[in-house]
Amino acid sequence: MEIHTYEKVWLALSLVLIVGFIATIAYGASAGPGIDMIDDKGGTVDPATLDEHPKFGDPGIEKTGENQYDVYVVARQFVFEPGTSEPLRVPEGSTVTFHVTAADVIHGFEVVGTNANTMAIPGQVAEFTVEFDEAGEYGILCNEYCGSGHHVMEGTILVMEQSEFDSWYEQQEQQTGGEN
Ligand code: CUA
């Protein structure tokens, strides 16, 4: 059987494409480009008793070290807590580890204009870390269809100057009796 030259060229090119696609995925899945895939390291929670959970019962920000913070977020039809009724506040120059879960159905949690993006699944905690270098405002969007109010489900992340954040945080601590 004779294979025409053009056919050989097309075969070779398709092979290059296939190998290229696989290489792209392998590169993206590795830590190489600084992309962190969401996996199961965040653990699980019981969505039915979320309100009694030590962290998700009163979600918000918690200082864990010098410039290090943990943020707990609950997504539910059709709000982010915190994020929707009040902005999710973080200080500039901080490293923030998000723990995101859902109370009812599957939601999305996307920080607009960044590569911070995860699904919020009832029972699962999505964990990922973001560095906020500059003060400013970011939008949060739900990007998984979650019901009639999906299109209005959004929130705000406010990256504040450190001193501003500190006084807000102190006030929070006092209000909640230091539980946070
Ligand atoms: Cu929540 Cu769409």
From TrEMBL:
A Pfam match: COX2
RNA-binding recorded as keyword: no
Annotated GO MF terms: copper ion binding; cytochrome-c oxidase activity
UniProt keywords, alphabetically: Copper, Metal-binding
One GO cellular component term noted in the UniProt record for this chain: membrane
SUPFAM superfamilies: Cupredoxins (SSF49503)
InterPro entries noted in UniProt: Ba3_CcO_II_C, CcO_II-like_C, Copper_CuA, Cupredoxin, Cyt_c_oxidase_su2a_TM_dom, NosZ/Cyto_c_oxidase_sub2
Transmembrane intervals: none
UniProt subcellular location: Cell envelope
Domain of life: Archaea
Statement: the UniProt record of this protein carries the keyword Transcription: no
Every Cytochrome oxidase subunit II copper A binding domain range: 66-171
Protein name according to UniProt: Cytochrome c oxidase subunit II / ba3-type terminal oxidase subunit II
